[in-house]
Each structure stands twice: as C-alpha cells, then as structure tokens.
Amino acid sequence: IPRNIVVTLVAVVLGAAVGGGCWVFFFKLGRIAAISGCLAVMGAIWGWSKFGRRELTTGAWVFCVLVGAGMIFFANYVSYAWDIMDAINETSPGRAQFTKIMANMPSLMKEMDLWGSFITNLVMGLVFAALAGFGGRSGGKKE
Fold it and tell me: Which of 11, 66, 101, 143 is the most exposed place for a label (fewest CB within 10 A)?
C-alpha cells in the first residue's frame, strides 16, 4: 500500500537533500564530487519508490530527476553564497550576513565574475544527476 502522497513528496525532497548536502560539503573542501549529483537523484527516487512505496512510473521518474536537479542547483547556489560570505568576512570580519548574500547573489556573482565557474560546476552536477536518473530508471523497470 502506497504511503500518503505528502509523506512521499517529503521523502523525495529529503532524499535529494542528501545529495545537496554532499554537494555543499565537497564544495567547501574545494572539490566537486560526481557522487553528489547521483545521490540527489537516487535519493529522490529512493524517497518515491522505497519510502513512499509507490511505483516509479515515467512521470514519477521525471519528477524525481527534476527534484534532484533542483537540489543540485540550490546546493550550488548556497555553496557560492557561503564562499562569497567567507571572502567578504575575510577582509571585513562580521560584515557579511548569509541571508543578505543570498538576497543579492546575482549582482554579487556578476561583480565577482563567478557566473562562469558557477555554471560549469552546475552543469557537471546536472550531468551526473541525469546519468543517475537514467540508471535509476533502467533499474526500476521490470521485465
């Protein structure tokens, strides 16, 4: 018997958040880890099929891949905001606040010329998320 859809959706987001948290962790270490994109999508698929006890239909699979990709985008955004905050606070301790950095990210990214590296990192994460999604879909089919 499938679980309540709200519980399932929360499980999908929390499963994807594992990959997002991994992304931020590795980013702070100065690395981009392919496992993060994979974890985001596979975590979302796990939340849907295992925790939510629902069939992984094509629509559900697309939804899980989109949630995983969204989580990677959000994690990349948070990672860059954290780096910007650290850079500002390095020269002027206590000057930058995370919420204000997040609110002004587009202009700060432009001013610091970070859009290129942001998009490069994001594309890498999304490619690995997509590969995990295709792997998760082929693993979910029954013959």
Answer: 143
